[in-house]
């Protein structure tokens, strides 16, 4: 039995079906990230767990207790909001102790907890200040501190870093990861930033149009997505999706035909019948520019130098563009004709419904 | 060069405003120092402080001052407390909220004279008023509001008139309250009362200050309600400063004393404003 169990959760607005049957089991101490494009229902799901939105169907169980109908104040959850939602008329100390004061804790206990939390978040010198006298990062820490002080069963984060500048965001991301290690409390985190999702999560939940698209560790999602949606959503730059001209099956091997190329692919790594139209997915780092004799030939349109690496945008003869990762000191020029090799082990195949019907090489070899 | 052009362009409005203020004020000051009674024309000799002495020693003077302050403070308390409570009540969406809002705001559109007439004739009349009818149907003796509780009646009328203004300001202010803060408080275990007490009331501090300031300006000069309903009476029981000045000027035709009274009212307004700005003004800078 998992710690937090969500079963068939539904949320209808007047004319909008926001959550379409969410099933999710979260273990104690996990760091779960909900990620997806805007409007996918990730914030609604979090707010429904928090009790700020009522569900229209399904159940939520926390630690063996059904909390579906419980008011959010009784759920024993703490939430960090995107706008931080600090109480503007209270000092930092009062913000931190608000929940404890409402719960009528002893003053000595309150002081003790506020002191230890403010020390661990480096807020001890700011306790007398009002929220508007703090910087963005400090406000963020107060919001986190306000959640920690209560020692809730689960922390909920609603895009907490999106209002910070880039440098601070990276720093706070690290602090959050450290905090999770230290506290070991279950955390649910909503973001639209896949880098945050990949770096923070134990498991990532990808949502699309009110449904869970895929759940898995960041690496699982990156290496073996279930669908085109996940494949495109995770990874920067995006995975190359190349429409194949034709696929020919010959004994145990599929010949993936594209222009003049034919890439061999073992049948053992696919499941289900062979679809009529196949799209091949390859990540930029799994394609290599070679001197000669590559699988594909194309013309370089643009090179993006990122310092540590370079991404070359290459147009194939049939007009499709692929992005290939090259070394930082590549000497390729715009307009040059290049040969590309494809890592066969990392190729993923999609059917016409955009579902993946292949497995990556390692998994196949285990069978 | 540029500065002088700016000044030149501003001059007409500044001069106009200044004249608008200076002329009546200086005329009032002038009248207050001469013997100026409409019943005895032509004897406008200089009398120094005598008009002030007459006004201050008038038997109604101290009653009028205290009535003015009682009226001011009572109406402020009633409109602010009820205004905050009512606007918090209608902040959440419910069926027919828009109609309720319009009804709550509508007394503000009614002229003070009409307001007083409504209360005098339809509500408080001891024979056919609604209050009398309620008392009668409960088997009680009807109360003659305007003669037995004249100042209280005026307070009720003026509060009814000004409550919509307070509600209007507070409802607008509540709409700018951050919903995430309320949700955060909810997650922190706060119930509705806690949210009201610790988030809504502090959030309303500034609008309350604004309402108090603006209402004070108008409440120091309440006149129409008194004129139409009680006529300042019985005796001086519902006479405030504005009504006393009117009494001097138009009932006793003594413009000199009335002008002295007017200057005293200016003085009182400044004293009240001084304390008021010290009390609530610091909310405005937060």
Explain what this protein looks like in three dimensions.
The complex is a heterodimer of chains A (367) and B (286). With 367 residues, chain A is of the alpha+beta class. Chain A has two domains: 4-233, Rossmann fold (3-Layer(aba) Sandwich); 240-366, Beta Barrel (OB fold (Dihydrolipoamide Acetyltransferase, E2P)). Helices cover 25% and strands 34% of the residues of chain A. Chain A has nine helices and 21 strands. Chain A has helices at residues 42-50, 92-102, 107-120, 136-148, 166-183, 194-200, 218-223, 228-233, 361-366; strands at 4-13, 16-26, 31-35, 57-62, 65-66, 77-80, 154-158, 186-191, 203-208, 211-216, 240-243, 246-250, 253-258, 261-266, 279-282, 287-290, 296-305, 309-316, 321-327, 337-342, 348-350. A six-stranded mixed beta sheet of chain A has the order 6-7-8-3-9-10, with helices on both faces. In chain A, helix 2 packs across helix 3 (107-120) and helix 2 (92-102) packs parallel to helix 4. The longest helix of chain A has 18 residues, at 166-183. Chain A is elongated, with a radius of gyration of 25 Å. By secondary structure, chain B is mainly α. Chain B has a single domain (56-89, 97-285), classed as MetI-like fold, CATH 1.10.3720. Chain B is built from 14 helices and no strands. The longest helix of chain B is centred in the first third of the chain and has 31 residues, at 2-32. Chain B is flat, with a radius of gyration of 24 Å. The model of chain B has no long low-confidence stretch (mean pLDDT 87). At the A-B interface, strand 6 and helix 2 of A face helix 9 and helix 10 of B.
